[in-house]
Amino acid sequence: MHEVGLASQIVGMAVREAERRNAFEVVTVTVTVGRLLQIERDSLQFGLDVLKGEHPCTEKTRFVLVDEPVQVHCSWCEATTIVDAWRFVCGACGSGAVAVTRGDDLIVSEMEVRGNENIAGTAGHGSE
Amino acid sequence: MKISLEQRVMAANDEIAAALRRQWDERAVAVVNLVSSPGSGKTALLERTLEQLRGLCAVAVLVGDIQTENDARRLSGYGFRVKQILTSGACHLEASMIAKHFPRVDTQDLQLLLIENVGNLVCPSAYDLGEDAKVVLVSVTEGEDKPLKYPGIFRRAQAAVVTKIDLLPYLDFNLEELRRNIAEIHADLPVFLVSSRTGDGISAWVDWLLGRPAVKVQQR
Ligand SMILES: Nc1nc2c(ncn2[C@@H]2O[C@H](COP(=O)(O)OP(=O)(O)OP(=O)(O)O)[C@@H](O)[C@H]2O)c(=O)[nH]1
Ligand SMILES: [Mg+2]
Ligand SMILES: [Zn+2]
C-alpha cells in the first residue's frame, strides 16, 4: 500500500505552504479523495496522523478527508452526472460515451493556517 | 486564515513522467509497463518475449522489485540491456525511479523500453511512468473476478494478458467469465492468452508489441 507515501507528500505540501506564508501553525488541511483511486482512507488518515508529528507547524493539524464520488460527462447527450464507481455509463441517457470529470484524483484542496497575518497578507493571494 | 489550494498530490510524479514522455515521443521510443500481482508471470513472459524480439527490435528492460536482483538476472543473456530497480520498500515504481535508471539501459537506436513493475495490482495503477501503455497480466490461477476486485488497473491498461493458460486443464477456470468481467470495466480492451511454458499465444502478443514503435514513428 502506498498510503504512507501519499501521506508524507501531503504533510510536505502543507508544511511548504505554511512556510511560504510565514504561518506558524496549520489548523486544518482538507484533502479530496477520488473514489477511483482505491485509496484506503483509514490507512491514509493513520499515515497523516503519524507523520504530522515530524514538523512543529503540523503537530496539531486536523487532516480532513473528503470522499469524492465519480462524475462523468457524456459526449452523446452532454449531461454531467454522478455515477457508481466503475460503472462508466451516463446517468442521464445510459450511453457509454463518457469521460470521467471528477473522482479520479487526490487533491489538497484547502488549508487553514495561523501565523503572522500581516506578513502572510503581503505574501500573496488566496487569503479570505 | 483559510487558503484555497487545489494542489494535486500526484503533480510531482506526473511532471517527471511528462518530461520522460516528451523525450520518448521525440525519439519514437515505445514504452510498455507490465503490471500484475506477485507471481503472475511478468518475468516469464518477458523471457519469452525477449527471445522472440532478438534481431527484430532494439529493446531495453527496467525491472522493479522491492528486493533481489533475481529478475534482472533471469532477463539478461538475451542481448539487451537490463537494469534492476530496487524500490527499497515501495510497492510500485515512480517516474523519478525511471528517470534515474533509464540512462543505464538507453542506447542510441532504442525502439522499445519494457518495464516490469513491482508485483502489485493497486499502487502501480496510480503512477504515470511516461509509458505509452500499461499492460495488466492475470494468471489463470488467480480467479475470474480479478478485474472486479482491482478495477483501477484494468481501466487504465491498454491491453490485458491472461497468463499460464497451459494450466487450464487442471483448473475450473472460466475464461469466458474473465472476459466478461474485463469487458465490464474496460470495453474493447485487447486480451491476449499466453503460456510462457509452452509458447502458446506468444507470437500474437509479440506482434502487438512490435507494432508499438511503428505507431510512434508515424506519430512523429
Ligand atoms: N505453468 C506455468 N507456470 C508459469 C508460467 N509463467 C510463469 N510461471 C511460473 O510462475 C512463477 C512466477 O513467475 P514469474 O515470471 O517470476 O512471475 P512475476 O510476475 O515476474 O513475479 P514477481 O516479479 O515476483 O511479481 C514461476 O514459478 C514461473 O515458472 C506459465 O506460463 N505456465
Ligand atoms: Mg518478476
Ligand atoms: Zn448521456
What would you say this structure looks like, in words?
The complex is a heterodimer of chains A (128) and B (220). By secondary structure, chain A is an alpha+beta fold. Chain A has a domain at 3-69 and 103-120: hypothetical protein PF0899 fold, CATH 3.30.2320. Helix content of chain A is 28%, strand content 34%. Chain A contains 3 helices and 6 strands, in the order αβαβββββα. The longest helix of chain A has 18 residues, at 3-20. With 220 residues, chain B is an alpha/beta fold. In chain B, 39% of the residues lie in helices and 21% in strands. Chain B contains 8 helices and 8 strands, in the order βαβαβαβαββααβαβα. Chain B has helices at 11-27, 42-53, 70-75, 95-105, 146-149, 151-156, 175-185, 202-219; strands spanning 2-8, 30-35, 59-65, 81-86, 112-116, 133-139, 159-163, 191-193. Chain B has a 7-stranded parallel sheet with strand order 4-3-5-2-6-7-8, sandwiched between helices. In chain B, strand 7 (159-163), helix 7 (175-185) and strand 8 (191-193) form a beta-alpha-beta unit. In chain B, helix 2 (42-53) crosses helix 8. Chains A and B meet through helix 1 and strand 6 of A and strand 1 and helix 6 of B. Strand 6 (106-115) of chain A pairs antiparallel with strand 1 of chain B, so a sheet runs across the interface. The structure holds guanosine-5'-triphosphate, magnesium ion and zinc ion. Residues 74, 76-77, 79, 90, 92-93, 95 of chain A line the site of zinc ion.
